[in-house]
Design goal:
The chain is an alpha+beta fold and 171 residues long. The chain is 29% helix and 26% strand. The chain has 3 helices and 7 strands. The strands form 2 sheets. It has a 5-stranded antiparallel β-sheet with strand order 1-2-3-6-7. Strand 6 (108-114) and strand 7 form a beta hairpin. It is globular and about 45 Å long. It binds nickel (II) ion (NI).
């Protein structure tokens, strides 16, 4: 399990480096990220959230009756198409716990990425998966969902987070 960084943290604002090869070390990192995400619990986690500034993310947005996991692991994900139609979802983030806000994004996107075997894949996403993958790719560019909000709302959230971080540090 890895420690999830909390906003505000300079590492959450950095542009991440592309992955050069999906090797065993990378697969271990992806598994660690998945376990950390499931434990949190969350539906998506990007590498910078655990302080690794590489273009990797993991997700699992499927809620099954039987509780079977449906993990997705992506290296170097890029959006190669997005719909003109937008949708609004109430988003949250493991790096900004207890804070939620509506964010508008394209309703559907097509993502190209390298999977855990280093194979190029393309995936059509809509609904929650589309929102989640765009949120996680934003992390790889140093962007958080609160960056879509107005300056007043954003600084209120950041203020509350600073307080929470202080409380946790002294707890
Ligand atoms: Ni997030």
């Amino acid at each position: 399990m890895r420690k999830i960084l909390l906003h505000p943290d300079p590492r959450l604002k950095k542009m991440c480096e592309p992955v050069t090869a999906v090797d065993d070390e990378m697969r271990v990192l992806m598994q660690d990220m998945l376990e950390t995400m499931y434990d949190a619990p969350g539906i998506g986690l990007a590498a910078p959230q655990i302080g690794v500034l590489q273009r990797i993310l993991v997700m699992d947005v499927v809620k099954d009756e039987d509780g079977e996991p449906h993990p997705l692991m992506m290296a170097n994900p890029e959006i190669i198409w997005e719909s003109e139609q937008v949708s609004r979802y109430e988003e949250g983030c493991l790096s900004i716990p207890e804070e939620f806000a509506d964010v508008e994004r394209p309703e559907q996107v097509r993502v190209r990425y390298l999977d855990q075997n280093g194979e190029t894949q393309e995936l059509d996403c809509d609904g929650l998966l589309a929102t989640c993958v765009q949120h996680e790719i934003d992390h790889l560019d140093g962007k958080l969902f609160i960056d879509y909000l107005g300056p007043v709302k954003r600084s209120m959230i950041t203020g509350r987070m600073k307080k929470r971080k202080k409380e946790r540090a002294t707890a």
